[in-house]
Amino acid sequence: MSTESPADGAHPSGASTAVPSKAGRNLPAAIAVGVGLGALVVASLIFVPKVWFGIVAAAIAIATWEVASRLREGDILVPRIPLLLGGQATIWLGWPFGTTGVLAGFTGTVIACFVWRLLDQGLGAAPRNYLRDAAITVFVAAWLPLLASFGTLMVTREGGSDWVFVLMIGVVCSDVGGYTAGVLFGRHPMVPAISPKKSWEGLGGSLVFAIIGSVATVTLILDANPAIGVLLGVVLVVTGTLGDLIESQVKRDLGIKDMGTLLPGHGGIMDRLDSLLPSAFVTWLVLTALL
Hints:
This protein is an all-alpha fold. It has helices spanning about 25-45, 50-75, 80-90, 95-120, 130-155, 160-185, 200-220, 225-255, 270-275, 275-290; strands spanning about 190, 195-200. The protein has two domains: about 50-155, no CATH class; about 160-290, no CATH class. The chain contains ten helices and two strands, in the order H-H-H-H-H-H-E-E-H-H-H-H. It has a two-stranded antiparallel sheet. Helix 2 (about 50-75) packs antiparallel against helix 5 and helix 6 packs across helix 10. The longest helix has 29 residues, at about 225-255. The two termini are about 30 Å apart. It catalyses: a 1,2-diacyl-sn-glycero-3-phosphate + CTP + H(+) = a CDP-1,2-diacyl-sn-glycerol + diphosphate. It is a multi-pass membrane protein. One of its GO terms (molecular function) is nucleotidyltransferase activity.
């Protein structure tokens, strides 16, 4: 989850007037929002697991709008309407049809976006960045609804809520460990050109916390081999860090700090999903393969 400073010359979209912490966040606001979102997730998974579909679908709709709007500000014309509708189809079709429904929703979204962008620029007009815009549209469709669908697919199986808990606790442990170690011990930047606040010490903290958290959840919640927890913890740190860096690179390309302003201390919804999205896929993959 992102904690970087804005790029040189970038406008601080949605920047808070509060003094940020050393890691670049308005910490009290970030904690309050994080606790509130966590309580919503826990309550839904315990009492009405299928509500998880609605929560994820709503989050992805908002995140898609944020990303598409930021891209359009950078003169990249991704078609928002078919992306929004197709993203919902990608997620919801996973409920009755599993991975087949997800694949059908994603493929239909891509085709609809290709046609929409073609008609949007006019059939009689000379092509203007069609290939670039179409390629970035596919990137957004895969980045958001496709990856998110693996988080919802978990609750369609028996005991699937437990899988989501394992995912969320592992990602939170990684984020908390990286934040704590980075603030206390961070001296050596990992990728300063992309995310100046990330350090190798923070990565080490993420590994320690994520492995401990994943071993605990895999053992206590899933009653499975602790070795699976070790593997999952390492993979979650790798995918979570890469997911964070991917969004950071996108934002630096666009010259912005945050994708949105909805969540005080965090930015937009997408700024909270950057590490969760690829982590949802790898958690589903590891647990499906090993359990």
